[in-house]
């Protein structure tokens, strides 16, 4: 375990999942998931569509009852505790704001249901507006007069209204355009840091997962297949599925001591059947494993250039290098290589 992961587990466990499963008819949506979530962690759950992310979070929030397994909050069994009695809140993509009401009424809704007096509710709503960086003037504004980003902040303020210890997010930013999403990602991360609360966050965006999380959990067909810091998941994927799920990657098969795709010998100590070479590790020039590649595409990414390469046997590769990389024009051929201490090995 890395120092980073060890630090995350130093904190006391707030939520503990043991063998948590959920079946719908003959669909096993979540299979035997066991996991400890430390207090204050930003945990992100990623996985393909249908892998069980929403079901898992709904189980944690108490909106679904598990078929088997237990859930503990600070050591206390809460498996059967209904959602409204858990110190948690869920924010999802559709936000579910009341359109015909004001921002203030939306934020105060749960407090009103609980019978909190009007002046207390209002004072709390103003605190929450400040928390999500909306000015006091928003209090009276109808939700329909808010922009997408403002609505998102109102939903966040509403989620914080009950002062939850754990916040669950089910793809809250997926319907928002790229620029605003980037702003909200940073705001959400700051909100996490400022409040010190535990966040469990679902996203389809790997970049979002990498930027925001302390740890990333990967679900596949209802199974939790890997959990680790973003760096661990990126650098030491457990298999080809995780490697290719977490961004661009070159996967080189090893056969009879060689890499057939590039016609080069594999290192004698090759630690698996596949070498995982990230684009930023396949670089021009001579390295531990070098071959000649033809440039088939050159994409400017701003500060970097992405090169699509083909080996003499016709296999495709991706390299990413700093700057404009003018010499690597489409149709030219160059030596590219990778150093074996920069790559990961997997068996499957
Ligand atoms: N209420 C339900 N009844 C029957 N099947 C369900 C129900 N909810 C989810 N499922 C099934 O469970 C599996 C997991 O669904 P889930 O919504 O958790 O996936 P997801 O990872 O959140 O997917 P997405 O990324 O598309 O939101 C799917 O096969 C889905 O069809
Ligand atoms: Mg979902």
Residue share in helix: 25-40%
The tally of domains stands at 2
Largest sheet: 6 strands, mixed
Distance between the termini: 21 Å
Which stretches are poorly predicted, pLDDT < 50 over at least 5 residues? 1-7
CATH class of the largest domain: Alpha Beta
Report the β-strand fraction as a percent range: 25-35%
SSE topology string? HEEEHEEEHHHEHEHEEHHEEEEEEEEEE
| Fourth-level CATH superfamily of the largest domain | P-loop containing nucleotide triphosphate hydrolases
Order of neighbouring strands in the sheet with most strands: 6-7-8-3-9-10
Looking at the structure, the CATH topology of the largest domain is: Rossmann fold
Say what oligomer this is. single chain
What keyword list fits this structure?
348 residues, alpha+beta, Rossmann fold, 2 domains, globular, binds adenosine-5'-triphosphate, binds magnesium ion
What does this structure look like?
Helix 3 crosses helix 4, helix 3 (103-113) packs parallel to helix 5 (148-160) and helix 4 (118-131) crosses helix 5. This protein is globular. The longest helix is centred in the middle third of the chain and has 18 residues, at 178-195. By secondary structure, the protein is of the alpha+beta class. Helices cover 26% and strands 32% of the residues. It has two domains: 3-242, Rossmann fold; 248-346, no CATH class. The strands form five sheets. Strands 6-7-8-3-9-10 form a six-stranded mixed β-sheet, sandwiched between helices. A five-stranded antiparallel β-sheet has the order 15-19-16-17-18, with no helix packed on it. The chain has helices spanning 3-10, 53-61, 103-113, 118-131, 148-160, 178-195, 206-212, 230-235, 240-245; strands at 13-24, 27-38, 42-46, 68-73, 76-77, 88-92, 166-170, 198-202, 215-220, 223-228, 250-253, 258-259, 264-265, 274-277, 283-284, 289-300, 304-310, 316-322, 333-338, 344-346. The chain contains nine helices and 20 strands. The structure holds adenosine-5'-triphosphate (ATP) and magnesium ion. Residues 24, 27, 29, 47, 49-55 line the site of adenosine-5'-triphosphate.
């Amino acid at each position: 375990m890395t120092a980073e992961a060890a630090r995350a587990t130093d904190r006391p466990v707030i939520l503990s999942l043991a063998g948590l499963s959920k079946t719908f008819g003959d669909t096993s949506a979540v299979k035997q998931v066991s996991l400890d979530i430390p207090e204050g962690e930003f945990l992100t759950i990623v996985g393909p569509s249908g892998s069980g992310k929403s079901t898992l979070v709904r189980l944690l929030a108490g909106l679904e009852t598990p078929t088997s397994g237990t859930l503990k909050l600070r050591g206390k069994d809460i498996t059967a505790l209904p959602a409204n009695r858990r110190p948690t809140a869920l924010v999802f993509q559709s936000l579910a704001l009341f359109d015909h009401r004001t921002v203030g009424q939306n934020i105060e809704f749960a407090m009103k249901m609980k019978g909190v007096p009007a002046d207390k509710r209002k004072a709390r709503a103003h605190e929450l507006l400040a928390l999500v960086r909306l000015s006091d003037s928003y209090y009276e504004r109808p939700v329909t007069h808010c922009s997408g980003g403002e609505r998102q902040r109102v939903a966040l303020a509403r989620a914080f209204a009950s002062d939850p210890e754990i916040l669950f997010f089910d793809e809250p930013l997926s319907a928002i355009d790229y620029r605003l999403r980037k702003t909200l990602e940073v705001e959400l991360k700051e909100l996490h840091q400022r409040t010190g609360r535990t966040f469990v966050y679902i996203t389809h965006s790997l970049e979002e997962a990498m930027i925001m999380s302390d740890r990333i959990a990967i679900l596949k067909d209802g199974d939790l297949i890997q959990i680790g810091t973003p760096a661990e998941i990126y650098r030491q994927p457990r298999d080809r599925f995780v490697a290719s799920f977490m961004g661009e990657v070159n996967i080189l098969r090893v056969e009879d001591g060689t890499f057939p795709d590039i016609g080069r010998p594999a290192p004698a100590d090759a630690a698996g059947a596949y070498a995982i070479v990230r684009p930023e590790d396949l670089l021009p020039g001579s390295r531990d494993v070098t071959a000649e590649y033809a440039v088939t595409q050159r994409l400017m990414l701003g500060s970097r250039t992405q090169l699509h390469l083909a080996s003499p046997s016709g296999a495709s590769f991706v390299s990413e290098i700093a700057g404009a990389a003018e010499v690597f024009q489409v149709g030219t051929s160059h030596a590219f290589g990778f150093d074996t201490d920069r790559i990961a090995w997997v068996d499957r």
